[in-house]
Amino acid sequence: MKNEQHSVSIHFAITLIAAAERKGLDTRQLLHNAGLNEQLLKQPGLRITPEQLSRLTQEVWKAADDELICMGSRPSRQGVFALMAKHLVHCRKLRSVYHRFAQYYNLIADAFELNFSVDGELATLTLKLTDVDNDPDHTLREFLLLLLHRFPSWLIGQRITLERVTFDFPKPAHSEEHRLMFPGRVDYDQPICSFSFSKKLLDEPVVQTTSTLGGYLRTLPLEWFKRQAYYPVYTRRVLNYLEQASDLAQTGIEQVAEEAHMTSRNLRRKLSSEGTSFQELKDSVRRDAAIHYLSQPTLTIAQIARELGFSEPTAFTRAFKQWTGVSPSLYRQES
């Protein structure tokens, strides 16, 4: 395949459109501009590309002039994050980044409150919404924690490994997405939303500059929605191998195990301990690649089937329906 594609749950698009609808925005136009369709939102098990979710978020930002995607008690106008980012890029260390992050948003944003503290060996950032009724699907809380983790990680040029993430709502149906969004332990039904990491990271220097910041800001929010390397070690190794395989259909666990200098039996055991299997990972790579290819109108379904190693289009159609609940042709038509 020689590429890395992945997908995200359509749940986030559904909640974005629901919030936009509550604000009276033209949701059909928002979906059209993002390359999505109302029929897709009726399939909660479907997945979309990060690019589609990013475009939809951008459309909501512009239409509502609200970086809190219509889910805060009060809007935060477009440009607020960029203005803050231009200040944070001048911080010397991560410690200053989080202190200023909290100070800045607590000063200008009435919709939520941030608190940053260090206790023992852990640094903790907490998030509290002013009115949770405006965020009935919890998307704003997920979005803000994602932003508060990934932007500082980018500033210091390395992933901030999280020790614990807490949410103040019950475990949702899409909780599997949290394993991809946040590294570390995730607990639900907690008093507050937060994440904690080793205080040793607070002394990491900021390595980005005003020149690199411009390019970063132009990609947002896509950089926040792309898959990060937050998988357990052997799951990540297998995914890396599969995503770079020239012939995915013929790639078996024996080849991956040989590359990792272990037996296939040992690799199966390692993957099982991480809560997955080789076939599950292979199917997820093929599924995400299929979703990406179906968003390219120049590729026929027969070409996509061959690219993914299926002997015939009907075999690909059966597999895609098993993965997503709809046929490739219907998925393409509705997106």
Automatic annotation (TrEMBL):
<keyword id="KW-0805">Transcription regulation</keyword>
<dbReference type="InterPro" id="IPR020449">
    <property type="entry name" value="Tscrpt_reg_AraC-type_HTH"/>
</dbReference>
<dbReference type="Pfam" id="PF12625">
    <property type="entry name" value="Arabinose_bd"/>
</dbReference>
<feature type="domain" description="HTH araC/xylS-type">
    <location>
        <begin position="236"/>
        <end position="334"/>
    </location>
</feature>
<dbReference type="InterPro" id="IPR009057">
    <property type="entry name" value="Homeodomain-like_sf"/>
</dbReference>
<dbReference type="InterPro" id="IPR032687">
    <property type="entry name" value="AraC-type_N"/>
</dbReference>
<keyword id="KW-0804">Transcription</keyword>
<dbReference type="GO" id="GO:0003700">
    <property type="term" value="F:DNA-binding transcription factor activity"/>
</dbReference>
<dbReference type="GO" id="GO:0005829">
    <property type="term" value="C:cytosol"/>
</dbReference>
<protein>
    <submittedName>
        <fullName>Transcriptional regulator, AraC family</fullName>
    </submittedName>
</protein>
<dbReference type="Pfam" id="PF12833">
    <property type="entry name" value="HTH_18"/>
</dbReference>
<dbReference type="GO" id="GO:0000976">
    <property type="term" value="F:transcription cis-regulatory region binding"/>
</dbReference>
<dbReference type="InterPro" id="IPR018060">
    <property type="entry name" value="HTH_AraC"/>
</dbReference>
<keyword id="KW-0238">DNA-binding</keyword>
